[in-house]
């Protein structure tokens, strides 16, 4: 895994708030995503997760713009392309055939006045490169994908979105996203507004689809339990920046940023002893009035004058291959500890990672 399928460098995204005013929602993000990996973007609401996810496919709303950086994909043919240099037609062909997105809120993601089969027809015809999709071919492909996500094509294809339950819509949305066999799938809060049993079913479905189709996955969530189950790598975001990234074991059982540790300390573990839960004091900063230095310093128990003055970039903590590295942006990372024991399966993953380092 020496050649990343997606390489993000110094990516910054801003939203215009007035004629000559803007706020930076994502700042200086560096990420590498390798083939077959599953990366979770975690953090509190408003930290920039969704904006970053939309930016990865240049799907930002009208007031949003990428102000700096590069987004380099390794395409199916092996060539590399900077997404920021693509023209409109190139982008249309790239989306859904090379990388696709499952948008937040399946309830509202479909056009309410057209049938599910027509959503598939639009996607297949507009985003495939040169292939002619007849009505029969569309129905065959759509039916195959719906069966893959355990939906009955005879029941779903001719239905309007409002005739499907929330779980059925989410499955149909996932099927639509993988219609052209993309290499990268970005999912924004894939289990939001679903009941627990349906969430469980969607998670299992994603496991099976990833195994069958082999896509690389980026999913956005504030649900740490979901991240622990679906991700093999995790990136923590705070105030628009990636402040820590590592394997699932690194982040959940050996965090080195006090914010990451604070998020985990606020969640009850499923197994083992029940610790006293601790919330993170204070609130995230306003994007219009960011503090000097580290953005987390007003809420951090380890903050010093240096933290209030200097903004720290990600620092590599391990000598593992880059696909499995652990990095953190904190001056006092050596003082951060989480008193929880890793489950046996995660411990074996860690041993494997160390053996490959």
Describe the protein in words.
It is a single chain. The protein has helices at residues 49-55, 88-94, 106-109, 116-127, 135-148, 153-156, 166-177, 196-213, 224-230, 248-253, 258-265, 305-309, 344-356; strands at residues 6-16, 22-33, 38-42, 64-74, 80-82, 99-102, 184-188, 216-220, 233-238, 241-247, 315-316, 327-328. With 357 residues, the chain is of the alpha/beta class. It folds into 2 domains: 6-231, Rossmann fold (3-Layer(aba) Sandwich); 247-356, no CATH class. It has an 8-stranded mixed β-sheet, with helices on both faces. Strand 4 and strand 5 (80-82) form a beta hairpin. Helix 4 (116-127) crosses helix 5 and helix 5 packs across helix 7. The relative contact order is 0.13. The model is unreliable at 344-357 (pLDDT under 50). Residues 8-264 form the ABC transporter domain. It is found in: Cell membrane. Its main location: membrane. Belongs to the ABC transporter superfamily.
In total, how many domains does the architecture comprise? 2
Low-confidence regions? 344-357
Helical content class? 25-40%
Strand order of the largest sheet: 6-7-8-3-9-10-12-11
The Cα radius of gyration reads: 21 Å
Spell out the CATH superfamily of the largest domain: P-loop containing nucleotide triphosphate hydrolases
Q: Round the mean pLDDT to the nearest integer and report it.
A: 90
Q: What is the straight-line distance between the termini?
A: 13 Å
Question: What overall form do the CA principal axes indicate?
Answer: globular
- CATH classification class of the largest domain: Alpha Beta
Along the chain, the helix and strand elements come as EEEHEEHEHHHHHEHEHEEHHHEEH
> What is the CATH third-level topology name of the largest domain?
Rossmann fold
User: β content, as a range?
Assistant: 15-25%
| Largest sheet features | 8 strands, mixed
Continuous helix count? 13
The structure class reads alpha/beta
Instruction: Give the tally of β-strands.
Output: 12
Query: What is the level-2 CATH architecture name of the largest domain?
Result: 3-Layer(aba) Sandwich
Subcellular location: Cell membrane
Keywords: ATP-binding, Cell inner membrane, Cell membrane, Membrane, Nucleotide-binding, Translocase, Transport
Domain ABC transporter: 8-264
Protein name: Peptide/nickel transport system ATP-binding protein
């Amino acid at each position: 895994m020496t050649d990343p399928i997606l390489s993000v460098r110094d990516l910054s995204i801003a939203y215009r708030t007035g004629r000559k005013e803007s706020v930076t929602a994502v700042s200086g993000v560096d990420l590498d995503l390798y083939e077959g990996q599953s990366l979770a973007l975690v953090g509190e609401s408003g930290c920039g997760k969704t904006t970053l996810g939309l930016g990865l496919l240049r799907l930002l709303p009208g007031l949003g713009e990428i102000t700096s950086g590069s987004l380099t994909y390794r395409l199916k043919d092996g060539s590399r392309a900077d997404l920021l240099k693509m023209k409109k037609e190139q982008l249309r062909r790239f989306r859904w055939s090379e990388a696709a997105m499952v948008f937040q809120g399946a309830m509202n993601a479909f056009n309410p006045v057209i049938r599910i089969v027509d959503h598939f027809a639009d996607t297949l015809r507009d985003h495939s490169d040169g292939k002619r999709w007849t009505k029969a071919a569309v129905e065959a492909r759509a039916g195959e994908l719906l069966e893959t996500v355990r939906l009955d094509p005879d029941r779903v294809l001719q239905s309007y979105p409002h005739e499907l339950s929330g779980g059925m819509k989410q499955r149909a949305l996932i099927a639509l996203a993988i219609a052209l066999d993309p290499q990268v799938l970005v999912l924004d809060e894939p289990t939001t507004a679903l009941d627990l049993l349906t969430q469980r079913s969607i998670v299992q479905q994603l496991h099976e689809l990833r195994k069958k189709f082999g896509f690389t996955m980026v999913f956005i969530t504030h649900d740490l339990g979901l991240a622990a189950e679906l991700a093999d790598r995790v990136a923590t975001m705070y105030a628009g920046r990636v402040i820590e990234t590592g394997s699932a074991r690194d982040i959940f059982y050996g965090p080195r940023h006090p914010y990451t540790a604070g998020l985990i300390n606020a969640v009850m573990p499923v197994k083992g002893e029940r610790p006293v839960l601790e919330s993170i004091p204070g609130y995230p900063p306003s994007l219009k009035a960011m503090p000097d230095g580290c953005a987390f310093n007003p809420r951090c128990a380890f903050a010093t004058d240096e933290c209030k003055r200097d903004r720290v970039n990600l620092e590599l903590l391990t000598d593992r291959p880059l696909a499995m590295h652990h990095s953190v942006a904190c001056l006092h990372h050596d003082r951060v500890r989480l008193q929880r024991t890793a489950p046996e399966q995660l411990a074996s993953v860690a041993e494997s990672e160390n053996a490959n380092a």
